[in-house]
Amino acid sequence: MAHPSQLGFQDAASPVMEELLHFHDHALMIVFLISTLVLYIIVAMVTTKLTNKFILDSQEIEIIWTLLPAMILILIALPSLRILYLMDEINDPHLTIKAVGHQWYWSYEYTDYEDLGFDSYMIPTQDLTPGQFRLLETDHRMVIPVESPIRVLVSADDVLHSWAVPSLGIKMDAVPGRLNQTAFITSRPGVFYGQCSEICGANHSFMPIVVEAVPLEHFENWSSLMLEDA
């Protein structure tokens, strides 16, 4: 998860987030090179007293500074489109979970099970135990099996919400009356934190998301216990 004074992204926990990190580095390097070139040109133009008639009127330079930006845009657009299609790809999910946003908590329904669902509320600060994170911990976590394709159906019960987990590369709007879907695969076990990313009222900051990825055997044990309690 994120830590104080962190400048970069959180560590990737899914293949899509790894691709997003690589694309970020790729685009940042292009921006850095362009900024360096522009800064050099500005400094050179300000400091030199010499002029060159071939620079003032040159068809070759105009062709270069027209084609070069077009090529740079293509270098950025192609990997961007590839990642967009990867993020929309949903192939044979092993588990489908419906996440519904409310003011101000999330409810989860495991649609592959007959009666497995629960509400997830933020744990108040005074009830936190040592090691838990303020404004991020919930009383019920969304538990999923690791290295399995998971489909999440996202909707809302009242106003606009947004189901977002940065380390998984997931952000999907929850719209009342509409069912949006997204998918992800966790590449390692762990606990991944997110928050509602759409301003949804007075307690918008107090509806966190906690995704816990566990081995398949542990997930089966957890689901059996939850069904027994239900």
UniProtKB/TrEMBL annotation:
Please state where this protein is localized: Mitochondrion inner membrane
Q: Where are the transmembrane segments?
A: 27-51, 63-85
Task: Outline the extent of the Cytochrome oxidase subunit II copper A binding domain.
Answer: 92-225
Q: Which UniProt keywords apply?
A: Copper, Electron transport, Magnesium, Membrane, Metal-binding, Mitochondrion, Mitochondrion inner membrane, Respiratory chain, Translocase, Transmembrane, Transmembrane helix, Transport
Entry-linked InterPro entries: CcO_II, CcO_II-like_C, CcO_II_C, Copper_CuA, Cupredoxin, Cyt_c_oxidase_su2, Cyt_c_oxidase_su2_TM_dom, Cyt_c_oxidase_su2_TM_sf
Cofactors named for this entry: Cu cation
GO BP, one example? ATP synthesis coupled electron transport
Q: How is the cofactor bound?
A: Binds a copper A center.
Gene Ontology molecular function terms on file: copper ion binding; cytochrome-c oxidase activity; oxidoreductase activity
What topology does it adopt in the membrane?
Multi-pass membrane protein
| Domain Cytochrome oxidase subunit II transmembrane region profile span(s) in chain numbering | 1-91
Name the catalysed reactions.
4 Fe(II)-[cytochrome c] + O2 + 8 H(+)(in) = 4 Fe(III)-[cytochrome c] + 2 H2O + 4 H(+)(out)
Q: What domain of life does the UniProt record list for this protein's source?
A: Eukaryota
Any one of the GO CC terms: mitochondrial inner membrane
**UniProt function note:** Component of the cytochrome c oxidase, the last enzyme in the mitochondrial electron transport chain which drives oxidative phosphorylation. The respiratory chain contains 3 multisubunit complexes succinate dehydrogenase (complex II, CII), ubiquinol-cytochrome c oxidoreductase (cytochrome b-c1 complex, complex III, CIII) and cytochrome c oxidase (complex IV, CIV), that cooperate to transfer electrons derived from NADH and succinate to molecular oxygen, creating an electrochemical gradient over the inner membrane that drives transmembrane transport and the ATP synthase.
Family statement drawn from the similarity comment of this UniProt entry: Belongs to the cytochrome c oxidase subunit 2 family.
Q: This chain belongs to which protein, by name? A: Cytochrome c oxidase subunit 2
- Source organism of the structure: Crenichthys baileyi moapae
